[in-house]
Design goal:
This protein is mainly α. The protein contains 5 helices and 2 strands; from the N terminus they run αββαααα. It has one domain: Cytochrome c-like domain (Cytochrome Bc1 Complex, Chain D, domain 2, Orthogonal Bundle). Helices cover 52% and strands 6% of the residues. Helix 2 crosses helix 5. The N and C termini lie far apart (63 Å). Bound molecules: heme C.
Length: 108
């Protein structure tokens, strides 16, 4: 009988470890759960690898700062994100809301 206790605990522990699948809109960062603005989450998923984690730009892709974005209208940014331009690929898989959130994020 004395063995039943620990065995049961191990079984329960295993169940708990399998339970917590990632929730929507959350990104694991260094073991912490990070929940950003909706546009920021999409940015990190889709844009950061080229435009940089902090929108600072990279060798190829320009920085996306509020000053630069001020000269582009919402509609042209939407077209650019959905269909791409030059060496930038389009992101037609994003929903209207995701594109709207992204535009307000890169304008901020
Ligand atoms: C594969 C790399 C890559 C990815 C991923 C990428 N971009 Fe770009 N982006 C570029 C390049 C390269 C340019 C310059 C395009 C050109 O003029 O040829 C650009 C240009 C832009 C511009 C225009 C900047 C300006 O001043 O003209 C915006 C806005 C932009 N990207 C936003 C985004 C957003 C938002 C995402 C995520 C949905 C994204 N990009 C993802 C490579 C990328």
């Amino acid at each position: 009988m004395r063995l039943v206790g620990p065995a049961l605990l191990i079984a329960l522990g295993t169940l708990a470890a399998c339970g917590g699948g990632g929730g929507g809109g959350q990104i694991q960062e260094g073991g912490q759960i990070y929940v950003g603005a909706p546009g920021e989450t999409s940015y990190r998923d889709a844009c950061a690898r080229c435009h940089g984690a902090n929108r600072e730009g990279a060798i190829d892709a320009p920085a996306l700062d509020a000053m630069r974005m001020a000269s582009s209208g919402d509609e042209s940014l939407r077209q650019l994100i959905l269909f791409g331009k030059g060496r930038m690929p389009g992101f037609g898989g994003l929903s209207d809301q995701q594109v709207t959130d992204l535009i307000s994020y890169i304008r901020s």
